[in-house]
Design brief:
310 residues; alpha/beta; OB fold (Dihydrolipoamide Acetyltransferase, E2P); Rossmann fold; Ribonucleotide Reductase Protein R1, domain 1; 3 domains; five-stranded mixed beta barrel; 26% helix; 25% strand; globular
C-alpha cells in the first residue's frame, strides 16, 4: 500500500524520501519512466519539498514513487542548459530567502529582483538577506541599508546580517523557525555558514571564496531538505550564478513589481512597457519619486533581456 512522504534530496535517478515526513524514516526511491522530463518540459520532474506517494519493496527496502502530489507552490528558474526548459529548485515553501553578500562575492541587485519576480508569480513569501556585513566598508553599509529600506518600502521583508552578529542571527532564525524555507543565492554568499550558525548540528561544508575572481566554490552539490532544531525545515540549494526567469511575458513583467501595479493602471495603453510610451502612469510615478530609481533601472534591464529572448 503506497505511503506518503516528502522528497528531501535527489542524486541522479534516486531520491531520498522521508516517509510520513519523518526525517528518521528515510527510504531510497526511484522515479518510474512515465514521469521523465520531456513530458513536463522540465529538467527535473521531481523537486526537493515535493509530497509523493511511495510503494515500498519489502525485499530490499527501496521505494518506487507512484504519484507526485499537487504542489502548493514552487521556486523555478529557466534551465542554464540552453533548452529554455524549467528547473524547479524547491517546492511547498513558506518562505524563500534570497541571499546576497555585500562583498566576496559582490552583491547583485538584479539577482534579487529576478528572485522576487518569481516569488510574486508563484505565491512565495520572500525575504531579502544581505550577508557578510562584517566585511562592509562605510560606503558598503550605506548601499546595503539603502537597498534594505527600498525593499521594505515596497512591502518585502529584508535584513542585513553577519554570522558574527548574534542579534541578526536571531532575527533570521525567528523567520525560519517552524516554517519550510529555501535559501537561494550564488556560491560563496554564505548560505551554508548561516545555516551552520543557526543549527551547528547540520555541519554543512563551506569553502573560501577565491581571492582571484571573488566567486564562491560549489560546496552544496544538490538541493537538500534539513530538519532544524528550532523547528521547521530548510532547503539548502547549490549556488547559482544567474537566476533566469521562466515563462514570464515581457508585457506582464511590471505586474510582478508591486510598486508599479497601481501606477500602471493609469497608462494610456494596455500593453505599455513603461519605457517610451506617452501618458504612462509608471513613468509619471518614477518622475515623481514614487518608484525607486534602482528598481526602475532593474525593471528596464530585465525587460530588455526578456524581449531579446522572446
Amino acid at each position: 500500500m503506497p505511503q506518503e512522504g516528502k522528497v528531501i534530496s535527489s542524486t541522479g535517478r534516486w531520491y531520498q524520501v522521508a516517509i510520513n515526513n519523518d526525517p528518521n524514516d528515510i527510504v531510497k526511491c526511484r522515479l518510474p519512466g512515465r514521469f521523465r522530463l520531456k513530458k513536463y518540459d522540465r529538467t527535473n520532474p521531481l523537486a526537493v519539498g515535493d509530497q509523493v506517494m511511495v510503494e515500498i519493496n519489502e525485499e530490499d527496502g527501496t521505494g518506487a514513487i507512484q504519484e507526485i502530489l499537487e504542489r502548493r507552490n514552487y521556486v523555478t528558474r529557466e534551465s542554464t542548459h540552453g533548452s529554455h526548459s524549467e528547473q524547479i529548485l524547491a517546492s511547498n515553501i513558506d518562505r524563500g530567502f534570497v541571499i546576497q553578500s555585500i562583498r566576496k562575492p559582490n552583491l547583485k541587485q538584479g539577482f534579487i529582483d529576478r528572485f522576487l519576480i518569481t516569488c510574486e508569480a508563484y505565491d512565495i513569501s520572500p525575504v531579502v538577506v544581505i550577508n557578510k556585513m562584517d566585511l562592509a566598508s562605510d560606503q558598503d553599509q550605506q548601499y546595503a541599508h539603502q537597498l534594505i529600506q527600498m525593499y521594505r518600502d515596497i512591502g518585502y521583508q529584508a535584513l542585513t546580517m553577519s554570522i558574527y552578529d548574534e542579534e541578526t542571527v536571531s532575527e533570521i532564525t525567528e523567520l525560519i523557525k517552524d516554517n519550510t524555507s529555501v535559501f537561494i543565492g550564488p556560491s560563496g554568499v554564505g548560505k551554508s555558514s548561516i545555516l551552520n550558525t543557526i543549527d551547528p548540528e547540520l555541519d554543512l561544508k563551506i569553502a573560501q571564496v577565491s581571492d582571484f575572481n571573488e566567486k564562491g566554490k560549489h560546496t552544496t552539490t544538490h538541493a537538500r531538505l534539513h530538519p532544524l532544531e528550532v523547528g521547521g525545515y530548510i532547503i539548502d540549494t547549490p549556488g547559482i550564478r544567474e537566476f533566469g526567469l521562466f515563462d514570464i511575458d515581457p508585457v506582464e513583467l511590471s505586474y510582478y513589481f508591486p510598486e508599479m501595479i497601481e501606477p500602471g493602471s493609469h497608462c494610456q495603453f494596455n500593453d505599455c512597457t513603461h519605457t517610451h510610451e506617452p501618458k504612462c502612469g509608471v513613468k509619471e510615478a518614477f518622475d515623481n519619486g514614487e518608484i525607486h530609481k534602482l528598481r526602475y533601472q532593474s525593471y528596464r534591464r530585465i525587460l530588455e533581456s526578456l524581449q531579446e529572448e522572446s
